[in-house]
Design a protein that fits this description.
By secondary structure, the protein is mainly beta. The protein has one domain. The chain contains 1 helix and 23 strands. The strands form 3 sheets. It has an 18-stranded parallel sheet that branches. A 3-stranded parallel sheet has the order 8-11-14, with no helix packed on it. It is globular.
Amino acid sequence: MAQPTVNLGTAANFAILAGSGITNTGPTTIKGDVGTFPTTTETGFSTVTIIGTNHAGDAVTQGAKTDLVTAYNDAASRIPVTTVSGDIGGQTLAPGFYNSSSSLGITGTLTLNAQGDPNAVFIFQIGSTLTTASSSSVVLINGAKACNIFWQVGSSATLGTGSTFQGTILALTSITATTGAVVNGRLLARNGAVTLDTNAVTVTICAPTPLRGISLWEDS
């Protein structure tokens, strides 16, 4: 049975959304909005290029954080169809809802195959941590779109050096993108911080509803 998408509400506009601050090192490019609340500290932003709006801790950010909580709880409460565990690198997965009761890792290449369905949804429910190895990648084939991929993480996520990641991370605690990691999607940390280091993070939103009319951010 096909999974409905996770409704992010106003959090869909955010490439980076944190609960306890955002820290950056090196030249980072963010295509999408940025915000953090209730801790509004943003460090190292002199080398960040934002194609979007830095809302810091304003009312827009606070509304997006409320929507993030709703989206996180939705993903966390669904009944999984398939169990995965350990390291899922090297596998090819079809659309569906996957559950790991503890940690999940990606080494090498994980391929997500939409099987020709442009609306195919992939949801990963992870009990504790998500960790991707250096130079690992998530590859999308046969119509898979980053805007329809969701990673609900029960604690924190770490993206390895030089890795390429697809989809929206909804982490209960923190998210760390190490040096050179590239993200097509969103880094949304409910309670903790988001840490960046020379990254490129680009919001993807499913057509036909482009984000603020900027087609660059659409998944097609």
